[in-house]
Amino acid sequence: MPTAHINGAEIPYEVLGSSGPWVALTPGGRRGMAEIRSLAARVAAGGCRVLIHDRRNCGAAPVSVGGGTTEHEVWADDLHALLQGLNALPAVIGGSSSGCRMSIDFALRYPQAVRGLLLWRVTGGAFAVSRLTEKYYGEFIRAAREGGMAAVCQTEHFRELIAARPANREALMAMDPAQFIAEMNKWDRQFRTGDGEPVIGASAAQLQSITVPACVVPGNDRTHPQAAAENLARLMPKAELQPLMGADLDADVDPAANWDVKEAELAAILTASLRRMGA
Questions:
Q1: Which of 34-37's residues contact partners 24+ apart within 8 Å by CB, and which partners?
Q2: pTM, to two decimals
Q3: Which of 25, 118, 225, 252 is most enclosed, with most CB atoms within 10 A?
Q4: Residue 195's pLDDT is what?
Q5: How confident is the model at residue 64 (pLDDT cuts 50, 70, 90)?
């Protein structure tokens, strides 16, 4: 699998499809690109070249703590540099959950580099902020306080990163726990500002400034409530809302398996939107 040296980090990536317009798709959480490969292949089969990659702290990419006001800014900057190196700009940018937040941030930071947006499982609201700050930052801050970087290495997420890239253990153990905690706290504080925003990571004014076509597929749980997607589609001037899953479930997160069942339908929605965008 190829890697690219991006902003000081080795970023693994893959391109599905050999011709056509460029699309970049990113999964949710801190999941690696394997999570979205099947969907990306379906989209590529519609006549696109689809880029997937492992973000920092995801999959087989290096661990990296610090830099940028938010983690999503770091991811957006890396993706822009990766697409630029592939001569793939402007591109359609899309993703689920954290990949959705990063895609919005990408459009705000690099408006000339975006042809359109494909956004699904939009996160928003106080519950999502509370749950995700604990999942992304709080757990690791406590581990570092209680047991230093050795304890961080033993958390489920970082164990997976070390298994995928053994050098990550050495990189983590070389970090000063106090600095690790300070950087995680900085990302945590910034993420919490999303509590009062229409969607996490973007104000109403910022969303109104994004004028490229966008396809918005609502989520269906407390972390990805339909209301967040509706707010996003209402505020972005050229957004279209494309329901898929039905009413919100009484669950923190709808299991991925339920979305896997709908993968072909989601791919059809995204592919149809790409055609309307002229991609």
A1: 34/59, 36/95, 36/96, 36/99
A2: 0.96
A3: 118
A4: 81
A5: very high
For residue 139 the two structure tokens come to 């757990």
User: Average pLDDT in the 223-249 region?
Assistant: 95
Reduced to 3 states (helix: H, G, I; strand: E, B; else coil), residue 259 is helix
Q: What mean pLDDT comes out for the span 173-191?
A: 95
Contacts of 8 (CB under 8 A, 6+ apart): none
What secondary structure does DSSP assign to 192-250, as a single string?
HGGGGSSBTTB-HHHHHT--S-EEEE---SSSS-HHHHHHHHHHSTTEEE---S-SPPS
Tell me the H-state helices in 86-225.
Answer: 98-109, 126-133, 139-153, 156-164, 167-173, 177-192, 204-208
What is the pLDDT averaged over residues 250-258? 90
- Determine the pLDDT at residue 100: 97
Structure token digits, residue 85: 């190196």
pLDDT at site 16: 98
Instruction: Name the token pair of 33.
Output: 């690109």
3-126+202-276: CATH class:
alpha beta
Domain spans of the chain?
Answer: 3-126+202-276, 129-190
